[in-house]
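User: Quick sanity check before I run a bigger batch. Here is a single chain. Can you write out its predicted 3D structure?
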Amino acid sequence: MRGGFRLGKLFGIQIRADWSWLLIFSLTSWNLANVLSANHPNWSAGLSWGIAVIAALLFFLSVLAHELAHSLVARARGIPVKNITLHLFGGVSNIQREPESASTELLMAIVGPVTSLLLGGALLIIFGLTTRLPQTTFTQPEQVLQNLGTVTTLLLWLGSVNIFVGFFNLIPGFPLDGGRILRAIFWGLTDNLRRATQWASWIGRAIAWLMISTGIAMTFGIQVPLLGGGLADGLWLAFIGWFLHSAAVQSYRQLIVRDALEDVAVRDLMRQQPLTVPPTCSVSALVHNHVMQNDDYAFLVMVDDRLIGLVTLDDVRAVSREAWNETTVQDIMTPTAQLITISPGDNAREALDRLAQRDVRQLPVLLDGKLEGLLRRRDIIRWLQLEAVLE
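Assistant: Done. Predicted structure follows.
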């Protein structure tokens, strides 16, 4: 499956894992197994690895809870959520559009760190209630850790790491949750989302460069309080800083694109005479007479002047070559009732949102049920490129 694999659904939201998640899951398990072996010399290697894998799974479930909190608040505020994806840096909620107000942005941003902090606090409270710590806890912590059982070790580690995740996400580096909280504050003060995003992006990039420079310094042996030092820790911090910088720049660019499309009507970008095929056309004829003769990958299926569906190259891929002559376009097309459409008077920003929500490349343009044209994703991109050249 493109971009990863599906894990299931929660509250109607599809949960996915990027392939990079397998890497970070393996690294987390390996690192934790080494830590457990060092702190519990009486544990067997199998037990250390078993607890490490369980802890890594539970950790990513807590990351999922963090992202699910974002997504459920977004849906409650009328913002569609396509999916949640676990990846190298934790997880991300694929929220389809920007919030309508600063208050919605603030609530969506803050609920994630609060979820992590509450979860971590609850786990540490349970650890405290179920564990009798000796008076030598602070003077001989290594000895105390060695005497912990498997369940209490899990509680202590998971509680601590969730507290860390909660506070880390509160760093005011856009697009981290803390940066989004900062943007919500700027937005509320200025009533200007673009300006607020620009300011939050600047601060996010500054924090990212601080992470990168600190990480580089750590690779040369400089010890940083709470972060330590050394090549591995330094490279990881610098890598996170680089990722944060890229995300901050990309988030601001996306907002600029959306603003640029706000005052552009769909009718100004659409193809008024899109390519069409009859429903009785065979798949073989579709490929050789239409796909191979044009640069389009989607064709409107028409009966007289009435749109009855849309056929794409993805539909063709689902048919074996041996069946191309016997299979018609009508057999594989998506009927009009299942298509996402748009009106010629709608703005291109709304069209871009709909394209993203269904992950499609084109939208039929209808007015009172009558076909007016076809808007492709490439038409929007071409217009943006032209605007960039002209500016």
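The chain has a mean pLDDT of 87.

User: Great, the batch can go ahead then.
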